[in-house]
Each structure stands twice: as structure tokens, then as C-alpha cells.
Amino acid sequence: MQFSLKNIFIYFFIFLLQQHIFAQEETSNWYFGNRAAIKFNPNNSVLAFEDNHMNTKFGSASISSKTGELLFYTNGSIVYNKNHNQMENGGFLASDPDVIQTSIIVPKPNNSNIYYLFTVKNSNVPPVLGTLIPSGLYYSIIDMSLNNGLGSVVQKNIYLNPLVKEKLTAVHASDGESIWVISFGKKDETSTGFNTIYSYKVSRNGVDDSPATSEIPNPALTNKGVLKASPNGKYLAMSNFSNALISNFDAEIGKITSTSFFSTKHGEGMDAIFSKANVYGLAFSQDSKYVYAETIEKGKNIIFQLQTDKPDSREYILTSSNYQSYFQLAKDGNIYMTTSKDDTNPGDSLSVIIPPKNKTETIGTYTKNVVDLKGKKSRLGLPNFIQSYFRTRILTEKGCLNTNLSFEVDTYAPITSATWDF
After folding, report:
1. φ and ψ at 416, to 5 degrees?
2. Is the pTM of this model over 0.85?
3. β-bridge mates for residue 142, sequence order
């Protein structure tokens, strides 16, 4: 088959288009663990940095500009600017070091300067040298137009909900502009279990402090684990150590509409009946077709792949003796995992799950120690992001010369126009 220069140019252009134009650069920079930092480049290579000044055992959050420039990052208690110094008024935020998902950063729609930093606190213990901050869900307001672009926390620790002690995720609403910030907690102070999903809408008007609420059918006895929204905004997945679930989510009203608990047990038959596996790591694939769950029992770690529309189906990705891992989807469509050896021995790298990315693939693959952290350490958490940022991509089928190619843009926002320059 012969290719003309024009053919080669078109192929090369499409490749560049797929790699660059629709990438969500807000998630390019990850800051986490013991001073670990990585950057996802436009060509999907991953580069480790040594400039992180933060230590955190569990959760963190970071945010970049639309062009991929780091803006700031946090462990939930302290905010660091892009120069890796504490941001003005960026200390003593409402969070605790043992919260798994300590924080998440949400830009104010239609405003390039204002960001809302949501944080969760699970204890009533006062911080060192600080005043008592009750447990619950909070947010602070950051103005990036101040201090020559380094930002300042202009309002701090605005109290939203005393019933939430763990779990934070976010996803765009059905209008493609507003964002739901979602957490999980008790229905009221007298509740003995945890069963209520709280969804707070962030719009051009700011944070609506009256949440949409919905309930899972069987209350959880504990509230330890993670909460993730699917990139397409149609599902929530949650682990509570002893169980895990997938709920259908209505991104227009911010409520779950149905819930399915999926099996996390090890073994079959009698072994499964007596299994008491705990669930920790959890993440959706970029196309929202699959969810990946890590289950651990007696030193045995199994990672399952489940279909979001068939939660009772599960396939084995990996069986190992690995310690628990935190999972986070990245803009390259892969899911990255921490590699701690135990609570006190952090990992030197990140491992990866590569979900199916075309119609011929049906099962994800696992690769150990893919990203070297250059002497820095991953612990038990990775940065928390608005999950719909990972949805945007160009879909096309493989084609040959002189055949028609169809393109489809999958994104969270309405598309008013698209220009193809061949």
C-alpha cells in the first residue's frame, strides 16, 4: 500500500489531535505521599519531580491550569502554591491526616480565579498550635488573582455538614458546567449506621449549602473507604472496607436512583461464604464501562474488574500478596496504584492497571512498578480530582487509506462547534 505525503500528514495530524487537543490538563500534576510528584505530559509520558514539599499518609489534591501549569496542591490541612511554599492564609484547614480522601479542588464555573477547596475532618482533636475544629465537611475559598498569581485563601473552613467524616468525589452536572461535590455520612446524629449520599452543587453562584440527599438501601457499619464518581457522571462506586457498591447517579438532580452491592469475597462455595475480605482501592475506567476493586483477606490481595451495568459480573485482574493500594484514574486512561509495603513502609513507585481501550479488548492488565518516583515515596493515597475531567477524548475506529473515518468527541460539556483542519 502506498502513502502520499498528504496521507502521512493526515495520519500524523489525527495522532496529534488525539494526543493534545482534548486533553484535560487540569489533572496533569500529581502531588502526594512523602514528597512525591509526577506530571503527565501531552504525549502521555510520565515524568517524576522532586519539588514536592508535602508529606501525607493518605489523601491529597492538586490542580493545574488548562495548559497544564501547576497552580497549587494540598494534603487537606495545608495549601502549597506553585512555588511549593505555604499559600497565604493556607494553614490550619479543617482536615485530619488519617482521612483517606482528605480534599478535592473545584473551580468556580465561569471564573478563572476562584477555586473551592473542600476538606473532610473525622475527629474533634485540635491541630497542633491550632484551635478546635469540629469534625465534618468544610470548604475554603482560594483567589488565584492575588499575590502575583500565587493565590490566597480568602475564606477558610466554611462549615457545611457535621454528619460527613470521610469520602469525597466530584463530577460535572448534566448541564456540563456546574459540578457536584459528593460525600457520604449519617442521615442524622442519632443514626448508628451510614447510609446518606450528600451532593453539593457548585455553580456560577457559588456553593449551594443545601445538598441533594439520597440513601443506600443497607446502612454501612463503618465509613472507611473511598467514593468515586464515574467520568460520565452516571455511576458512583463506594468501598466501606467490609462491602462495596455501585449506584446509578442522576447528574441532573445529584441523587442516586438505584444501588447494587457487588461481591468482594474471596474464593468460591464455602470459602466465599466465610470470606471476610476488606475493600480499599476503587476506580472507574475512562469510558465508565468498568470499575476496578481491590479486596484483601489474610494477606491475599485480589483485584477484580466489574462491568458497571452488570455489577454481579467480575473477572480477576491480579492475585498477589501486595499491601492495600489507592487507585486513581489518569488522563492517559490508565489507573495508577500506590505501592506501600505496609502502614510504615511506603513504596518507591506506582503500578498501573490498563483497562480495555477498544472493542477487541475485554479485560484489563496489571503492570508492577511502572513509574519510578526518584527516591520519593507513595503511601496510601493519590490526588483527588473531579472525575469528569478524565472523560474527554476523541473516539475513532482504525481505518485504511481511501476509507471513511468517523470521529466522535466524548466530553462532559456541550459542544457548540468542532473544526477539523486537514
Report:
1. -90, -25
2. yes
3. 115, 153
